[in-house]
Amino acid sequence: MNPKQMQKFVLSYLQSTDCHILEKGPSHVTVKLSPAADRALTNRPYYWSFVDRTGAEPETMTFRWIFEPPGENSAPETPGLSPYMIGSTRVIQDYVYFGSGRLAQIFESVGQAGKNVMLFEEPPKGPGHPLGSQPYTAWLGANFKVGYECDMKREELYGMGISLATGIIDERFLEKLRDKRLTPKLPSNVHLLRNGLSLRKAMTQLENHLERKLRNADFGWAAEAEERRLDELARVGQYYEPMIERSATKEQAEALTARFNQRKEEIDWQYRPRVTLSVINCGIFHLPGIE
Q1: What are phi and psi of 18, to 5 degrees?
Q2: pTM score > 0.90 for this model?
Q3: How far apart are CA 155 and CA 149, in angstroms?
Q4: Residues 205-215: pLDDT tens digits?
Q5: Fewer CB atoms inside 10 Å of the end CB: C or N, the chain?
Q6: Long-range contact pairs involving 236-244 (C-beta distance under 8 Å, separation at least 24)
């Protein structure tokens, strides 16, 4: 991520969280955070707890972010990093660059907020019919993580989507979104078609589709893992069983048996093959057309 890309990403974050940009330059921005961004970036849990308890009007913080590493500032008008005032507002200055703590905070905030999103594809630019309205279909898109686990682990990612209008499933849906311009705001001259599937039913169909797909995969790794599990159980049994048989007392035999059973549980947990499925994130995407 180069500085321009990083700056564009940060400005997009500020816009999507409804922050108020006070002033913007080639390599900096002065912004008054929205309540959502302030909660995510300023580490003021006691203040926001007070606001939530009392219902007081929140006073969010104002920052001047400089999009260059310290010592490489090319904007001669940029003051030092001490706070300064704009009227009665205190402005805190900070460098935001790839690897900075502030950018890491923004990434974390995006990751948390991006677990569930609702976006609309932007219509093509250009004059359209002023009274025309384009139909949009809602899609449920989800990123699934499939884990193949035993004493080794492998993970695969699947990005799939299902039309909430027709139930069509597209296994490459999220790949196709990369080339689309998406916005969190409903575009003008657009109407949304009625959904034929509920979100719960649509997610169930996606999960069932992926499960059927996974059943046709090669599970040779699972058979090999099961062989290693049985071999390890046999090896541990050869160690503990003679000791239990030769135990001098009942208490000693019970203690060895308990250790043997614990060891068998550990081996079972480590070697037994299993497949796990989890949802990383998902969203509702409104796209042109009827599908």
Answers
A1: 65, 35
A2: no
A3: 8
A4: 999 999 999 98
A5: N
A6: 236/260, 236/263, 236/264, 236/267
